[in-house]
Each structure stands twice: as structure tokens, then as C-alpha cells.
Design brief:
Elements lengths: L26 E3 L10 H9 L14 H11 L6 E4 L1 H12 L7 E4 L5 H9 L3 E4 L18 E5 L11 H10 L5 E4 L20 E6 L12 E5 L1 H11 L9 H12 L1 H24 L3 E2 L6 E5 L5 H10 L2 E5 L9 E4 L3 H16 L2
Parallel strand pairs: 1-11, 3-4, 3-5, 5-6, 6-7
Antiparallel strand pairs: 2-8, 7-8, 9-10, 10-12, 11-12
Helix pairs in contact: 1-7, 2-7, 3-4, 3-6, 8-10
């Protein structure tokens, strides 16, 4: 602890991102990255921008990207906010909309950055327990609150909350903001963006990191009523007026417009996920139904930590959460067809020769 720190710094419990090891021939299934390359059109657009224009600042409003997103989601430009990855968008959301006098509600098993933001912005949090089968129950959010946030599909469980249940939460809480964090929605769910024009308290947050294969580009965005977006813009412009560079804006626009590439890679991942769930079942694993690009699974006769350690010994890494209720589960990213097969071959050896 430094004597020069601001008082809040010592109180923080920072987020620990998924491991990014520098190991050759590693099958990396721990951070839910897309196993397939980005759109070639996105690559071409980014390369074309790497010229003399880089001496100039980017558009602080990222107008080209906002217009592209507005068209894609059938919304108005003033209903779009963009930022440096969805984590930055979330950070601005916590400060602009969720820092209230009443507690913020989110699931007890959820994205582990939420409590970190609460610590950073000194927001009172109340964790709402998932049901026994790890579902978010809409009726559990019918309590006094200063805001609600949850991922859909949830992370790390991968379970999807249907739009009618999201509407129940919105209708029960008309005077507080409900944030739906849709990092994985493209792998098996229906976006709540279709509800935005009916609910002025709904904010939907998405990212290009997962389904668009652009985790390294850092582009996220929020969709919602113009008043909510204006709140985010006020915080953003008090923090960093230029969160997206010229290359990111061009690459993001091209990736969103290349619907054919998006559909092709998305479907490959969905197909691999379904096959992998079937194969895991034959090995005795018990998996939650997943609408994401990962599978949350456990084996009844072998500890998750042990499985993770033995996979690592074979140059395969998955995510193990040493936390209550989920310490026997592994979160396994759906990789390429070849990576999935290598994983299953290794698991077969671990399970059947334990």
C-alpha cells in the first residue's frame, strides 16, 4: 500500500482477467474468444486506414459507427453509445446510471466485473441468488432498488433469459434502469434491443469481441432511450473524448456490415457447441443448457480443479471458478472443430483412466 494512494484505492478488489499465457501450441479455451478470424472486409478496412490520416484525431462521436449500428438495430443515432470495449461502456453505465441511493441488483453468479465497478464507484450492491438450476428468476427482482444489471446469456452459466421474462423485470421496475449485458447474445438468443422503443428504462450493451472476432480491437456499444445515452455521453466526455481510434471505427463498421461472414462463423460455433455438449454427456459430464459460445459443465466423479490441472498438463486451458456453488464446474470455450476434438480426446483419457 502506497502512502500516495487516494483513500479508495486500498479498498479496491480489482478484476482478474482470464489468463493470456505466452505458450506455443496451446489450445486456449478459457476466455471465450472466437476461434475464427474476423471478417476479411474488416481487415481490409482497417489496413486501408493505416495511412496519413493517423496523424489526425478520430471522430470523437464515432458518427460513422453510430449510423451503422442505428441502421443495424433499426434505432435512431441518438439511441447509440460506443466505447472502448463493452467493459468501458459498462464502467460509464455504472457511474452515469447505476450510482443511486438504493442498492444495485445483480445475480450472485454473474460477470465478476460488476462487484468491482461497485467498489470503484462506491455503489451499494445486493446479489440476487440464482435458482437451484442457475436460472435468473424475474420475480426475484421485484424489490426496492437503484438499478438492475445482468448478462444475457448469463456468464459463466450460459443460460438464457427469454424476452418475456426481461419484460417482466422492466414492468416491475419502471423507475430504475435495467441493463441487459448481451456479450454472448448472438450465439443463441434474441436481443432485447427490440424492446428499447417500448421501455425508456432499458439499456442493452453489446460487444464486437465475441461474435465478430474482434476482441483485440476493443469496441463495445450501448443501445437505449436517448436520455440514457445522453447520460453516458456526459460521463464519456468528462473522461475521454476519443475512446475509439480511426482503425477501430473503420473495422467495426465493416464487421457489422459483413453479415455473411458473421452468420457463417456464428453458425459454426453453435454447431460445435451442440456436438460438444453431446460428446461431453457421453463422458458423463453434466452441462447447463448454453446459448453462449461456451459450456458450463461438471463431472460427478472428478473434481473440476483436477480436470483443469490435467488439461493444462496437456496444453489445454479452460476456466475454473473457485467460488461457492460453482467450484465443481468448468467453463469451456467452444473452439474450432479441431480444438474441440482435441479437448474431447484429452477428457476421454482423463475420465476413463483416472
Amino acid at each position: 500500500m502506497s502512502r500516495f494512494w487516494s483513500p479508495i484505492v486500498a479498498k479496491l478488489d480489482p478484476y482478474v482477467p482470464g489468463e493470456q499465457p505466452k505458450v506455443l501450441d496451446l489450445i486456449k479455451l478459457n476466455t471465450n474468444e472466437n476461434p475464427y478470424p474476423p471478417s476479411p472486409k474488416a481487415i481490409k478496412a482497417m489496413v486501408a486506414e493505416t495511412g496519413d490520416n493517423l496523424r489526425l484525431y478520430s471522430d470523437p462521436n464515432a458518427s460513422e459507427l453510430k449510423h451503422c449500428l442505428a441502421k443495424h438495430f433499426d434505432l435512431q443515432v441518438n439511441q447509440i453509445f460506443v466505447g472502448n470495449g463493452s467493459d468501458e461502456v459498462l464502467a460509464h453505465t455504472f457511474q452515469a446510471l447505476l450510482k443511486q441511493d438504493k442498492p444495485l441488483l445483480f445475480p450472485d453468479i454473474s460477470y465478476s466485473f460488476y462487484p468491482v465497478y461497485c467498489g470503484l464507484y462506491e455503489i451499494e450492491a445486493k446479489r440476487v441468488a440464482l435458482s437451484e438450476d442457475f436460472s435468473i428468476m424475474a420475480e426475484d427482482y421485484a424489490m426496492d432498488n437503484g438499478g438492475i444489471i445482468f448478462p444475457n446469456p448469463n456468464a459463466p452459466t450460459g443460460k438464457l433469459l427469454a424476452l418475456d421474462n426481461i419484460e417482466k423485470i422492466l414492468n416491475t421496475n419502471p423507475n430504475t434502469v435495467v441493463v441487459v449485458d448481451e456479450a454472448y447474445i448472438d450465439f443463441g438468443g434474441e436481443t432485447a434491443a427490440a424492446l428499447i422503443n417500448d421501455y425508456d428504462n432499458l439499456l442493452v450493451i453489446q460487444t464486437l469481441s465475441k461474435s465478430r472476432s474482434l476482441a483485440g480491437l476493443r469496441v463495445g456499444f450501448a443501445l437505449g432511450h436517448a436520455d440514457l445515452i445522453n447520460g453516458l455521453e456526459r460521463v464519456k466526455n468528462s473522461f475521454n473524448s476519443y475512446p475509439l481510434d480511426r482503425i477501430a471505427i473503420k473495422g467495426a463498421v465493416a464487421a457489422i456490415e459483413d453479415q455473411q461472414h458473421f452468420e457463417s462463423t456464428r453458425q459454426r460455433i453453435i454447431n460445435s457447441r451442440e456436438k460438444m455438449q453431446e460428446k461431453l454427456a457421453t463422458l458423463g459430464f453434466e452441462s447447463l443448457p448454453s446459448a453462449a459460445n461456451f459450456i458450463f459443465t461438471k463431472h460427478p466423479s472428478l473434481a473440476a480443479k483436477t480436470i483443469a490441472e490435467q488439461l493444462r498438463a496437456n496444453n489445454i486451458i479452460v476456466r475454473h471458478f473457485d467460488k461457492p456453488r460453482i467450484d465443481q464446474y468448468l467453463r469451456i470455450t467452444v473452439g474450432s472443430e479441431d480444438e474441440c476434438q482435441q479437448l474431447l480426446n484429452c477428457l476421454d483419457g482423463i475420465i476413463n483412466h483416472k
